[in-house]
Amino acid sequence: VEDELMRAQRLESLALLAAGLSHDLRNILQPLLIIPDLIRDRSDDPKIIRLADVIAECGRRGHEMVESMLSFVRGSRQPSERIVLQRLFQAVGMLLKSSLPRNAELHLEVSDDRIAIEANYTELQQVLLNLALNAIQAMPDGGTLSLIAERVAGEEDKVRIRVSDDGIGMDEATVKRLFTPFFTTKSDGTGLGLVSCHRIVESIGGQIQVQSQLGEGTTFELLLPMFECSGDEDAEPVESNRVGHG
Ligand code: ADP
């Protein structure tokens, strides 16, 4: 409990800090996003063009970091909608295919097309993408990335989503630090991916858990409140269905 409290306090002060920083950083980075194009337009010198590319890449990475800081700060303040899980999986599958190495396989499965979740679309997509991209990065020698969604037996208002890889895995000490802001083992990591996953999942009333074995792989499990949707379009909350049917 104390751990949880410390984490919450730390997150709150970090959120304030990040909000201020990201605003200023956005402005500071602006020239890095514009100037490389101006240089490319005005020069035929391949060396100069290469330097412009370097500047552009720094700008892009800086911009990405600012955006992930911002999405971490925004937390639950985004508008939510009913999302048909099968559609979200299709979209995520399309996005992932482009970053999947040739020796890796992608397995997507939603147990039925009536599962819907109430969340901000971009944020929920971000959660799945963050977990999936971490999984891909954990399988440098290839393997299988799977995203599986199914109803939770005995709990008709919950859906379980598992994001699994058979990659490098983690030891216990690493697992303990996963949700600590800025904890990363990557040279180009931000250490904010899982922190914002955690925040987004909590903001929609869900839970996130991890199981990992060094050298075997990792499974992130999301337990989310679900809504029943009839076929495709409108989703009805399971809660009110239950009331309606006695
Ligand atoms: P980042 O990806 O920027 O490092 P994250 O918060 O997404 O930030 O992840 C933090 C750390 O957790 C990673 O640097 C990595 O060490 C570890 N990690 C996350 N997902 C996995 C995974 N699927 N397999 C192994 N390690 C992982």
From TrEMBL:
Histidine kinase domain span: 20-228
Give the protein name, as stated in the record: histidine kinase
- Organism whose genome encodes this protein: Stenotrophomonas terrae
